[in-house]
Amino acid sequence: MDCGEQYPVDKIIYACEKCGGLLDVQHDTDYLNKTVNKALFDQRLGTFEAPYNSGVWRYKEMIYPDVPNDIVVSRPEGNTNLYRNAKLAAWAGVETLYLKHEGENPTGSFKDRGMTGGVTQARVLGIERVACASTGNTSASLAAYAAWAGLEGIVFFQNKQIALGKLAQAIAYGATGIQVDADFDRNLELVREIADRLGIYVLNSINPFRLEGQKSIMIEVIQQLRWQVPDWIVVPGGNLGNSSAFGKGLHELYDIGLIDRLPRMAIIQADGANPLYRSYKSGFREYEPVHAETVATAIKIGNPVNYKKAVRSLKWTDGVVEEVSDQEIMDAKALIDRQGIGCEPASACTLAGLQKLVRSGIIKPRETVVGILTGHVLKDADAVIDYHSNQLEGIHPQYANKLHQSEATIEALSAILGVPEATPA
């Protein structure tokens, strides 16, 4: 993306050999203009035909047009719901809020959209072993898709603060799991080095085929809104793969005329893992990695590999960056959960950040907002229980749902429920 050097799609490469920059999958705009239209994508809705029953491969012409259908590795993924919720909108301060719940994917996170693209490319290349560094969601997705494709999955975890729900998934799906005494950023360096040495294919978001799948979230959002463009897209920011993919997908939709304007993007980071926010405040003149600490383990990343692509997305969409505290994250999560929707902590950055941006006047109350929920509520069950039982250090639960204890008597239960004891007939 920096110098314009081109490489064939069957070359195993994660960074430009000329300048060291990040790689993009570049599509033929003339081909897309001739083949892609709203009617094509609409007629595939609800189909049982693979791979078009996937919410990624429904848009195959924009994802990977040349790959044979029988090579595609799909669960299927996508087709996630878009929820309009008046109570959460009122709390955030806007009239119209939609929440796109990517926790409804097969392994419970948006990573499945990227992994179907990445593992499909591994199959195209004839690769037998795939690997990633992970804070949790990527490992679950890689393990599942590798197993489905008959490949060996390999996962590098840090040796602390991994949500058990995510770790359990990777182990259950049969991946080779290695806990390394290092944080995510160092693990990503290690997995790239070991992959080069042992001929393993890396499936972190530095892999551009991952991001092609993830951009389908934006295409699907626009289609679910009947091809109308919202004013804002609000998304959590960790390794910044989603932010990067969203900007690319929206830019391509605009280039081929499926939308007539670009929504603005807001990327929300935890204040303990906020290198993009700090850079944004300097006008992107400065960038420094940070030591990441946050309850939102899915975005606990101090040196996001997709920083430059995220900046590009922000410039394309006239976007903004905000930060939120762990207190704000967990309180927002409790509100989302209470609506029967549910999400993992990182997802709640969306709602917490939206409220801050409305209060600061950046997002206007009458603007239409789509917020992205990235993971399922059971991805980090410990965080749920610890919040509601006031066991999270430094966080006072504003919306706690107390778990009651009771003796096995009607009198004790009535005392808790506030129901008068029944009078015998």
What would you say this structure looks like, in words?
- This protein is of the alpha/beta class and about 425 residues long.
- The chain has a domain at about 80-105 and about 210-390: Rossmann fold (3-Layer(aba) Sandwich), CATH 3.40.50.
- It is about 40% helix and about 10% strand.
- The chain contains 17 helices and ten strands.
- The protein has helices spanning about 30-35, 40-45, 60-65, 85-90, 110-125, 135-150, 165-170, 185-200, 210-215, 215-225, 240-255, 275-280, 305-315, 325-340, 350-360, 380-390, 410-415, and strands spanning about 80-85, 95-100, 130-135, 150-160, 175-180, 200, 230-235, 265-270, 320-325, 370-375.
- Strands 1-2-10-7-8-9 form a six-stranded mixed beta sheet, with helices on both faces.
- Helix 7 links the parallel strand 4 (about 150-160) and strand 5 (about 175-180).
- Helix 9 (about 210-215) crosses helix 11 and helix 11 (about 240-255) crosses helix 13 (about 305-315).
- The protein is globular and about 70 Å long.
- It starts with about 30 loop residues before the first helix and ends in an 8-residue tail after the last helix.
- The model has no long low-confidence stretch (mean pLDDT about 95).
In short:
The protein is α/β, with parallel strands linked by helices. It has helices at residues 29-35, 38-43, 60-63, 86-92, 111-125, 137-149, 164-172, 184-198, 208-214, 216-224, 241-255, 275-281, 307-317, 326-338, 349-359, 381-388, 410-417; strands at residues 82-84, 96-101, 129-134, 152-158, 176-180, 201-202, 232-236, 264-270, 320-324, 368-373. The chain has a domain at 82-107 and 211-388: Rossmann fold, CATH 3.40.50.1100.
